Amino acid sequence: MHGRRIGIATLAVSAALALGACSSQPDTEPARDVATTPTTQAPALRDCSDIPKKPKADLSNCDLRGADLANLNLTEVNLAGADLPKANLFGANLTKANLTGANLVGATLKVADLPGANLEGANLTEVNLTKAGLGNAKLFKADLKEANLANADLAGAYLPKANLANANLFKAVVFGADLSGANLTRANLSSAELPDANLEGANLRGADLSGATWTDGRVCAGKSIGKCK
């Protein structure tokens, strides 16, 4: 009997030790920190249908798709991040307006006044800027691909790294503008006025410079493609 009791006791002690060893082992899948890293999202567009469109108005991040803003006085208006595709801004006064990051794809800005306006990073693809006034406007990294800038005034405008591929700059006034690093591939610069413009690092591959007044004042010969001849 004593031997049997000792055997049972030994088995109990061994089982207890085994259980203790199991409980001391770490989980194979340790607890994870479920906290998520915050992400930065663009502000949601606002419904600005009832907000007055007037000078110095705050129209930032407004949904203005297809809006009719023709001939309005929008001097110093804040349109940063606004959505304006196919909007009608014909003849609008946007002097010193803030249009940074605005979406203006296919919008009409014919004969609009934008001197000193900030359009940095704005999407101006296929925009009609015929005869628009953009003197001293800021267009750093703006996308002006296939935009119509015929007869536009870009004197002193700031356009480094702007995308002007296939843009129409026929007879545009570009006196003293900064186009360093700009993409002007296949752009129409015929008869444009470019004295004192900064074209350092600009891509002029396939650009038409026929009859343009070059940065040094000489007139480019006909069929000057890619460079002033």
Number of helices: 1
The end-to-end distance, rounded to whole angstroms, is 118 Å
Largest sheet, strands/sense/barrel:
2 strands, parallel
Average pLDDT = 88
User: What's the overall geometry?
Assistant: elongated
- Give the strand order, joined by hyphens, for the main sheet: 1-2
Order of helices and strands: HEE
Structural class: little secondary structure
Portion in beta strands: under 5%
| pLDDT < 50 stretches | 1-38
| Tally of DSSP β-strands | 2
Radius of gyration: 32 Å
Q: In which range does the helix fraction lie?
A: 10-25%
Structural topology:
Layout: H1 2-24, E1 46-47, E2 62-63
Parallel strand pairs: 1-2
Account of the 3D structure:
With about 230 residues, this protein is mostly loops. Helix content is about 10%, strand content about 0%. It has a two-stranded parallel sheet. The longest helix is centred in the N-terminal third of the chain and has 23 residues, at about 1-25.
Characterize this entry briefly.
The chain has 229 residues and is largely without helices or strands. Helix content is 10%, strand content 2%.
Keywords:
little secondary structure; 229 residues; two-stranded parallel ribbon
